[in-house]
Design brief:
The protein is α+β, with helices and mostly antiparallel strands. The protein contains 4 helices and 7 strands; from the N terminus they run H-H-E-E-H-E-E-E-E-H-E. It is extended.
């Protein structure tokens, strides 16, 4: 309940309760370390009904099954990702926060931006590089030319192609 008193044991597909269970049962944290009202609020938000294609469903559910050994932090991160959640530890009390829509702090408009102080360009993401080839001089290896490669594999698989950009470093850092 909202005080952290265990009232029953049952399976839940609500990620907030799964996270609480992982922290207390798996990690072994004391109930006094958990900010139960934050978990109750998070669970309520996860359980809110939303409409998807005409069907009413809970906002977030989690049916994660780990078929191989996984360390605690990776398992916890996977469940947090199912609900856009994050844990905070304030003075020893662990809280769960779910990212939710909120009012902006400040709206930028042409009227409140100083002329010529800001510029933005819209680019087609299909035209941006998803692979970088980097060339540089290695100071620890007699200034020999070295290369590095960075691939953005998720974007490459979405686009089914590689778009390469080359970057040559002309500066030496000593």
């Amino acid at each position: 309940d909202s005080s952290g008193v265990q009232t029953a044991y049952a399976y839940s597909d609500n990620p907030a309760w799964q996270i609480a269970d992982m922290l207390t049962t798996v990690r072994g944290l004391s109930d006094s370390r958990i900010d139960w009202p934050s978990f109750v609020a998070a669970a309520a938000y996860c359980a809110q009904t939303i409409s998807i294609n005409g069907s009413d469903v809970p906002r977030f559910v989690s049916h994660i099954a780990f078929t191989q050994d996984v360390d605690f932090d990776k398992a916890l991160e996977a469940i947090l990702e199912t609900c856009r959640g994050c844990l905070t530890d304030t003075e020893g009390l662990i809280s769960l926060r779910i990212d939710q829509p909120r009012s902006p702090i400040f709206d930028f408009t042409p009227e409140n931006i100083v002329d010529s102080s800001f510029s933005a360009q819209w680019m087609d993401p299909r035209a941006t590089a998803n692979r970088l080839e980097i060339g540089f001089r290695d100071l620890d290896n007699n200034f020999s030319l070295m290369t590095g490669l960075w691939n953005h594999e998720p974007q490459q698989s979405r686009r089914s192609e590689e778009h390469t950009s080359e970057l040559q470093s002309r500066q030496y850092i000593v």
